[in-house]
Every structure is written in structure tokens, then in C-alpha cells.
Amino acid sequence: MNWRTPILAIALLTFAAACGDPGGAPVGGDDSTTTLPATTTMPERIPNGDWILASGVPIVDGYPITFSVDGDAFSGAAACNRYGGTITLSGDALVLSDIFQTEMACTDAGVMESESAFLAALGAVTSWSIVDGQLRLDGPGEPLVFDPSTEEPSEAFEGTTWILVSGSPIVDGYPITFSVDGDTFGGTSACNVYGGAITRSDDSIVLSEIFQTKMACMDTGVMEAESAYLTALAAATHWSIVDGQLQLETTGEPLVFGPSSEVPADALDGTAWILVSGSPIVDGYPITFSVEGEGFGGTAACNVYGGTIVRSDDSIALTEIFQTLMACMDNGVMEAESAFIAALGTVTDWSIVDGQLHLKGSGEPLVFDAVPEVPTEALVDTTWILDTVIQGDAASTPLGDEVTLVLAADGTVTGSTGCRTFSGTWVERNAQVVFTELTMEGDCSADLAGQDSLVVNVLGDGFTAEIDGPTLTITSMGNEGLIYIAESS
Hints:
- By secondary structure, this protein is mainly beta.
- The protein contains 5 helices and 35 strands.
- It has helices spanning about 110-125, 220-235, 335-345, 375-380, 445-460, and strands at about 5-10, 15, 50-55, 65-70, 75-80, 80-90, 95-100, 125-130, 135-140, 145-150, 160-165, 175-180, 185-190, 195-200, 205-210, 240, 245-250, 255-260, 270-275, 290, 295-300, 305-310, 315-325, 350-355, 355-360, 365-370, 385-390, 395, 405, 410-415, 420-430, 430-440, 465-470, 470-475, 480-485.
- The strands form 4 sheets. Strands 1, 2, 3, 4, 5, 6, 7, 8, 9 and 10 form a 10-stranded antiparallel beta sheet that branches. Strands 27, 28, 29, 30, 31, 32, 33, 34 and 35 form a 9-stranded antiparallel beta sheet that branches. Strands 15-14-13-12-11-18-17-16 form an 8-stranded antiparallel beta sheet, covered by helices on one side.
- The relative contact order is 0.08.
- Mean pLDDT is about 80; it is low at about 1-40.
């Protein structure tokens, strides 16, 4: 590619800008944000700094047009391509010469037309001025009006994880991220983890020594998205941060990233998650994942599992995994459990993106939604009366004596099953209500034994609670659940 093809030559033009004190010093310096002096006089030359086009030619969203000045040189982004040239000021004359541009093609509607209009207008400029903090380049048509750019220096890369929002195909559930740490960069490229070495200046960038892991993800379009992204990334030549978004200019459409909501390692502590994709899920047998200190655990469709967790800000190791040995006979449940536990054992990286937990290993990422917090304020110090018993697709009215549940704010619990009473203690742990002690009293007749067992199993294994007005709904594995109504209702 010819990176400096002269495209315009501008003859000596009339310098028609209003002039102030001819002794005024140039304004600006190496800072990327232009700052003007507190004076009404015009500087004798265009201040060093960066500007972003506000009006004068059509502007396409996501393809900013910029104009930067550094001494006798100017450069910028002309929607799709980079451009630059030489500034000469002599008395009242302005000359923009040796103008060049790169030769990329952007296919989004209107982008190349916007670029063409801008470069044509730029070539016809005859004067400049600064009015109300804006840079104006005047010619025979509408003036090109620029605002001071809010682009940030190269250090702005540091400490931020970015997530791709446009410029390359994106597959739902397979986020593409980019982050920088010193002289290295890395992230997730849809399926795999990648990284490399980075060299950058205030607006140029070189990404080299790019590597990636070798996993294969089978969902439609994932590997194609990854290939397209890594190809574009390797060709990146310039960067900018505009309106809070990171833009990497490459041989095609720019890669545009927004700040990610990823969080540091200790943010996992005390959280609980429920699987939504990445491994088979059987209705009524939720798969959960929670972290507390150096331990993790949850339900793996049928059984309870746990282990030891070691993590940093983006890497994770799940070791010493154990599980109970129950057998669930519903179709697909044990297969779902086996697939999840196998995937969990290969996990090496984690992130929280848009409120979802992603655990990445040797296959498709395990993606979890956060389990809603226990509605403690509405739950405690209310007497709940059982209204409906749920078993699979069947719902029935409870039998025997009134079935109650009372969770007190002091951490005690009392209640009944219809034939037996119980008491004990409870805590809120990882978005669940967990009974830490439970004592049963009484006996049950044969016709109430099944209900008694169901109530104890649903409550005793730890449960999530959903409250809608006077109704409390508690569910557990196998589509078993209890629906209570507040006594005062």
C-alpha cells in the first residue's frame, strides 16, 4: 500500500483571518487536548493540538473526522482514511501542501462520500480563525468548524478493559475485548484468548507478536468473527479515544470499543450465578455457581459440587472439585451435569461483561446471569401460609394442618409441614436462604409423608426466594416448589 500518495497541492492562498498581536506566542504543546489562552487576540499560527469536526460536511456516526496540528505539519482521520500534510504561513497567506492519505475502503453507507467531501473542502481552504473556542477553516463553501478534541493521551490505554461494539462481526454471548498492560495487550477474541506486544505514540500504534489459544467454538459464526477481528487488529495503525470510545484504525472499518464493565477479582466474593448458556440445561434442574473466599460451589443440575478457587483480575483456576453422588432420572439431567463439570474443570479465564459472568475454558464459554439478591426486608418477620405445592407440571393444595414459614430478623426460623413443626437458624449466603440448623418435631401419617418430605427438601437444601406483592415463591431442583401467601393478605 502507498501510504503517502500526494493527492492535493494548494497554491499560495490569501490569509484572510483576523489578526491580533503579531508577537503572541503559539498556544498549545504536546498535549492532545487543545487549550486556548485567556485573551481576545488571535495567535499567529494555528495552535498545536487535536480538533474534531463539528460541522461543514456530512459526518457519519462512528467515523469521526479530526484535524491535528504539530508545528508545520497537520494530520488526522478523514472518516475512513488517515491524511496529513504541511502547513506554511507567510504573512497573510496559508498554504496546505504535500497532502497525502491512506487508501482504505470503508463500506458503511455514506463514509467514503463524507471523506471525499471533507478532503475537497480542505483543499479549498483559504483562511482560518478561532471563534468561541472553535477552529474554523474557511473556503468557498461552508466553513469546516472543529471543536477541541477530547481524545486522551496514550496512557489512557492503561488499566481499562474495552469491549468491541462495532467494526467487526460480533456473536451474541462471545464478547471481544481488548486491554493494555504496559508494553503488552490482550483479551478475548470471541472464542480464544489472545495477546501480544504493543508500541504506541500519541496517535499511532503497532500491535506485534500476536498469539492466541487454539480452542474451537462450534456456535454459528464464532470462529469467523474471531478470524475477522484478529485480521483487522493486526493491521491497526492509529488509535484515538473519542467520546469515551476507543477506536483502532485499520485497513477497513475502524474497530470501536466501549469501556467494559469487567471488575477486579475480589468482586466475585459473595456472588451467586445461574447458568444461561455454554453447556446443556434441563428445565427444572438449574446449574449454579457461587464464590465465597477461596471456595466455590453450587448445583450441577442434580448434585451439589464445590472446590477451591485461585484467581487474579482475569485468570482463574478451579481445583479440588468434588460433588455428591445422587442420581436424577429425568431425561438428560445426568448428561447435563457431566458436561458442566467437565467444562468447569478446564476454565482458565473469567470476566463479568454487561452483568454476566463468563468462564472460559477449552470450549464454549460458560455464561451465567446473576442470581437476584434475597428480598430480605420483605421476607423476614412475616408469617407465610403455604397455598400451593408444585411437583413438575402439577400444582396442588397442601394437606393437613396449616403449613407455615416464619424467618425472623434475628436469624431464627420456625414453621410446619402440615404434620410436623420445625425450628432452627438461617443465614443469607450467596443470594440464597440457607438453614444452618433445623430440628423437626412430630409424626406424619402416610398420606402426609410425601408433602412433609417435599417441604423439608425444598427448604432444607437452600433456596432462592421471589416475592411479588403478598406472594412468596420458592423453587428447587426437579421443578419442585412452594408458593406461600402472607398471613395478613
